[in-house]
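Pipeline run #58 for the internal structure catalog. This entry was flagged by the ingest filter as a single-chain record with no existing model, so it goes straight to prediction. Upstream metadata was stripped on purpose; only the residue string is passed forward. Reviewer on rotation: M.T. Logging verbosity set to normal.
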Amino acid sequence: MTDRKQADAAFQIIGYPQRMLRPILQRIMLCAVLLVPVFLPVAEAQERVDVALVLAVDVSRSMSPEELRIQRRGYAAAIASPEVVRAIELGAHGRIALMMFEWANDNHVRVTVDWSMIETQADATEFADRILREESYSQRRTSISGAIVHASEMLDEVPYLADRHVIDISGDGPNNHGSPVTLARDIAVESGITINGLPLMTTGGPGSQFNIPDLDVYYRRCVTGGPASFVIPVTDWDQFPDAVRRKLILEIGGFVPEKPLVQPVQFTFEEPYDCLVGEKIWRRLREQFFWDP
């Protein structure tokens, strides 16, 4: 039996003559050809970057309008600095993905600049200019946990293939709204995200009653986590631009602040830390002054 006759016999077995199936097969092949270009741009759009970095910036009412302006200017100056651009250029891929949003209570998130690829000085300058186009507006309460959850969602949606996912979170007080901060932190870290902290340990803001003296310890014990995570405290607003620049350089390179190579052998056990201290301060003040929840 010839090949053609074998094919005709096979088509007859499934109930259709070959002359009826040939147009169907041709349409299937045409659709396959047309669909190929649809998928290729999606794959090509997933450019590789060294790190996908989310800047989560506190705008709770414990910060004064002038402090909010200093904060915006500090981030803009740090991102556009030649040192940060040089750190980006030295990466394996020579580019990063960056976005920035402001946060306060568990329900307040405001995107300052959406996901952008930073590869050149011009890219960094454009990102910095976009930060300075608007003013920050403060909101009540402080939900670090809400900021971590939102930042994690942004990293899920990043339109680039990143070697590392990092959340850079700054704030001037402990969590006092939303879910416990340790719960949000642990979920993020388990998903492969690194969280670094920039605790603002300045004085003179309108919400000093919510401040704690060891905010750097709070951030280290309750907020940050993941591979190579670290905390850089700011004790004076004059330090802010330099602290942000240093932090960005470390995050872009995947480094941690320098530590002695050799440390004396010692056995120390840290005392348990109350990561609900912010919630307890809020509850005490609410009961004292009869505030609404």
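catalog note: Confidence is low (pLDDT under 50) at residues 10-17, 30-34, 36-44, 260-267.
catalog note: DSSP finds ten helices and seven strands in the chain.
status: ready for reviewer M.T.
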